[in-house]
Amino acid sequence: MNPPELLEGLRRRFPDVQAARGEATVVVERSGLLEALAYLKDERDLSFDLLSDLTASDWPGRFPRYWLAYHLLSLEHRHRVRVKVGLAEDDATAPTVTGAYPTANWFEREVYDFYGVTFQGHPDLRRIIMPDDWEGYPLRKDYALGGVGTQYKGAFIPPVDERNA
Amino acid sequence: MAATGVREETMIINMGPQHPSTHGVLRLVLELDGETVVSARPVVGYLHTGIEKNCEWRSWQQGVAFVTRMDYLSPFHNEMAYCLAVERLLGIEVPERARVIRVMLCELNRVASHLVWLATTALELGAISVMLYGFRERELILDIFEMASGLRMNHAYMRVGGLAMDLPDGATDLVRDFLGQMPGRIHEYEDLLSANPIWLERTRGVGYLSPRDAVALGATGPIIRGSGIDYDVRRTTPYGGYEDYEFDVPVLPDGDCYARYVVRMEEMKQSLWIVEQCLERLPDGPVKVDDPKIRFPGDLRVGPDGIGNSEQYVRHIMEESMEALINHFKLVTQGIRVPPGEVYQAVESPRGELGYYVVSDGTPRPYRVHVRDPSFANLQSLPLMVEGGLVADVVACTASVDPVMGGVDR
User: Fold this and answer.
1) Residue B297: which of B59, B106, B69 has the closest Cα?
2) CA–CA distance, B351 with B224 (Å, rounded to integer)
3) Do B259 and B357 reside in the same domain of the chain?
4) Which chain A residue's Cα is nearest to B335?
5) Which of A27, A94, B263, B342 is the most exposed place for a label (fewest CB within 10 A)?
6) Which residues pair with A81 in a beta bridge?
7) Which residue from B minimizes the CA distance to A78?
8) Nearest chain A residue to B407, by CA
9) Rounded CA separation B18/B41 (Å)
10) What domain count does chain B have?
11) Which of chain A's residues have a Cβ under 8 Å away from the Cβ of B230?
12) How far apart are CA A86 and CA A59, in angstroms?
């Protein structure tokens, strides 16, 4: 759980920081992402020095379609924050954060691999988990899960993405 | 370089993905100048199983059975993190007995995982007897897990809202026996290794990682603590009741393979201490939440032929109570509903910060389950450790990172 001082510290720069379930979430514009991360990293009473996690989620039919989520941790103050950036479907690209957080290298490759979101300025943006010649972006919601139906004692059990529950 | 005539060309060596000392299917593309590693590039993805995608198509409770298979050496930590994340979305707390059993199993799992690490690392560096001892003692822990959950690995024993079933009679005695034996055994390993000239030669000063680089590259677990940074999720952002236990977080400033070895050995002792505290405070009581809309139905027992519902329960839903049958049917086929929202839950797995980012949109299925696997992040620091060193030390460094590819590739 985050200490209450964290929210005060965040509010100075990000007035509409959200607090839910003991977590703080800051939503920033893509154009202000690098600046926001630099602030979070350098401000003395925030000092988020470790990027724990970077990932995305896909919301087809909504705007923005993709949300990037950066999970930051401060080793000194023992608090965490989530920074979120929305990306439009036809402009799914974001600046790389590998400059400030080198660990983002593989995480951004993973997001690119699974969601097709590109990162400008990334040193080595290739697929990381899927084979290099794979087509499509498997974690997008419109990418079918696949699978085959099975026959069991005369009954046909459809593949998992065609079942009801 | 060619002008001096010393280094005219380098050689590219493919190590893995099928190689006994890459701990699974890790591939390393090494550029060598003679015996010296010029560059190293880890290539991952050979064990991708699509678990994150699969979770989006299964009910919330079924997710446990998937995530436990990711990092297969620490199944309980995966289950713990997933369950805690979903429980936070639901806004529920599990009963005290379940909390204590979870912590106890996680710590036993940490010892088991470090034993596999010790055994395989020792084998790779030439200490074959330690390999035999490590797997021998791990077996004792797996016996405890098997007694509790019916399975040696991939238990799916923790469920959203508690545990699948209570510990069987005699399980705590088995744990007590183990606690009696294990400290002496750890002492034996240390006698064999800690001052062994070959072991020191192979690990001390090998695979250096500076604290600065460890933080920048997101290394966690024994690696960051072996580089002098005091970061343990159990201490930094406690979860699941860890704030109530006493334990030390071993930190060494040396940043080499030997420091990571010492950290892991010390962590095993600390884990045993936590297990001892768990046994002392293990209260009686339920192991599932009271809410029938969340609690997984059934009265599971480990029998000679595996896990199944007790006869009384089957009779209850089949013959006595229609309501119980309907409730059972709804919870098993449809599952629970989880309020919309998102959480990030980190736990300290044997390899470092294991984080679950879980998003719900209010339906009976998770909208997104992302796993921040510690091995995935830790592997990024491997090139820094091996570049400039000897090719033989690549094996020692890879072992000291302790990557589990099931977790890396998910």
Assistant:
1) B59
2) 10
3) yes
4) A165
5) A27
6) A72
7) B236
8) A129
9) 16
10) 2
11) 75
12) 10
Q: How many CB pairs under 8 A join A and B?
A: 104
**Token pair of A43 as six digits:** 């401000």
Provide CB contacts within 8 A for B145, sequence distance 6+. B105, B108, B109, B112, B151, B152, B153, B155, B157
- Range in A51-60, B141-150, B301-310 with the lowest mean pLDDT: B301-310
Please count the helices (runs of H) and the strands (runs of E) in chain A.
3, 9
Domain ranges, ordered by start, for chain A: 4-131
Task: Fold for A4-131, please state it.
Answer: Beta Polymerase; domain 2 (3.30.460)
Domain span at residue B217 reads 51-294+336-409
Q: Which of residues 376-405 of B touch A (CB under 8 A)?
A: 376-377, 379-380
Cβ atoms of A74 and A92 within 8 Å: the answer is no
Check if B84 contacts A (Cβ < 8 Å): no
Q: Is any Cβ of chain A less than 8 angstroms from the Cβ of B340?
A: no
Evaluate whether residue B245 is within a structural domain.
Answer: yes
A74: tokens are: 């401060």
Q: Indicate the length of chain B as a whole number.
A: 410
What pLDDT, on the 0 to 100 scale, is given for residue A165? 52
- Whether residue B348 is found in the same domain as residue B374: yes
E strands, B191-269, are: none
Contact between B44 and A129 using a beta-carbon 8 Å cutoff? yes
Of B201, B134, B207, B145, give the one whose Cα is nearest residue B175. B145
Do residue B240 and residue B389 come from a single domain? yes
CB contact under 8 A, A52 and B410: no
- Flag whether residue B127 sits within 8 Å of chain A, measured between CB atoms: no
Query: Which of A49, A51, A73 to probe the B interface (max B CBs under 10 A)?
Result: A73
Domain co-membership, B102 together with B162: yes
Question: Model confidence over B296-322: pLDDT tens digits?
Answer: 888 888 877 778 888 888 888 888 888
Closest chain A CA to residue B53: A139
Q: Return the pLDDT at A82.
A: 92
Average pLDDT over residues A105-119: 93
- pLDDT tens by residue, A92-109: 999 999 998 999 999 999
Do B103 and B64 share a domain, yes or no?
Answer: yes
B86 vs B359: CA distance, rounded Å? 9
Same domain (yes/no): B37, B146: no
Helices (H), B340-388: 374-378, 382-386
Whole-angstrom distance, CA of residue B271 vs CA of residue B348: 12
Question: Tell me, what CATH number does B405's domain have?
Answer: 1.10.645.10
Residues whose CB is less than 8 angstroms from the CB of residue A95 and which lie 6 or more positions away in sequence, other chains included: A30, A33, A34, A119, A120, A121
In a domain, B309, yes or no: no
Task: State whether B93 and B124 are in the same domain.
Answer: yes
B239 and B161 part of one domain: yes
Mean pLDDT of chain A: 88
